[in-house]
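Ticket #4471: structure output looks truncated?

Reporter: J.K.
Steps to reproduce: submitted the chain below (353 residues) through the standard prediction queue, then opened the result file.
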Amino acid sequence: MRLGSTNRKADAAMLAELERFRSNHSFDQLPCAEAGEEALDDALIRRWFETIGKEVRTTDLESMEILVPHGSRKVVSNGGMILFGREEIRNRYFPDANVSCALFHGATKSRFLDRKDFGGGIFGALEEVPKFIARNTRLAAKIENIRRQDIPEYSLVAVREVLINALAHADYGVTGMRLFVSIFSDRLEIQNPGMLPFGMTLEDFKSGVSRVRNRVIAQVLHRLEIMERWGSGYERIREACREGGYPEPEWQEMGMCTRVIFRPHPEVATSKPVNVPVNVPVKTEGLSERQQWFMEQLSAGKNVKAADIEAQWNVVEKTAKRDIAELRKLELIDFVGAAKTGSYQLKLTGKGG
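Returned output as attached by the reporter:
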């Protein structure tokens, strides 16, 4: 099937979306037939609408199409479930409406350094994914007028804008695909299921043409002042990158998904990470898998401690601290700074290996 500037395979999912497009309905407006109002997480709704000083009533849920008619009763819409469904119920209906993040060694997916699946839906992703990115990307230090300026590897504003756009416009009707955030040594990628909406091309998107795939989700995020609906996202991303000295990201349509690729800030790409020695060999022979992972995180410029070993490997604090103590005894790592604010660093030489 020819749509815009691309050829797209007319499978069952695409034909269903084409039918919704013809009938002027989006997937997230459709009823989640067996889910009544009790399936909504009232605390989550209150928490987010309190950020704009609004108390939400049932009539508001109906006006935003979080609740929609189905036969003789009101049920939660697909969009309402994806946004505000109780986690165990949302995962039953939409197990792929979550985000998976990964840090890879080098420029390919052959080896993981860190990975995390965030199961809190759209709002959980908005809170947790930026933290994962910040923890797993580098900083460069630039001195100007005797002041130090830390430069993030990627534009925080642009990455957040793309993340919001991906969550708002993902095709949640596609099963077996979810949103991925992948961090490589030379780039960051955000990939969401679903191509551009019918009739849209990348040229349309870049020129400011707006076409919403998920009307319920977009409306709610707009009301919460998280996103704009009027096609200004691309220009805001470009402006953030231009002002910060970052390369402009690249958009790609890849089969049944859309991918945005960020490249590092030139200052970060050509400098060592803050507080990380250059060309330090990571000696891992004779070390446990947990200790190897810890050393690799330090080599990649991450600020990791015992709590990170606990979380990554599901071990108790005593085990994590013993792992680190052995690395220090082998003179592979050292702790620099005050107890509360310092960090572990690789040593230039060591007894290990």
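Triage note (M.O.): checked the attachment and the full token line is present. Residues 121-135 form the longest helix (15 residues).
Status: closed, working as intended.
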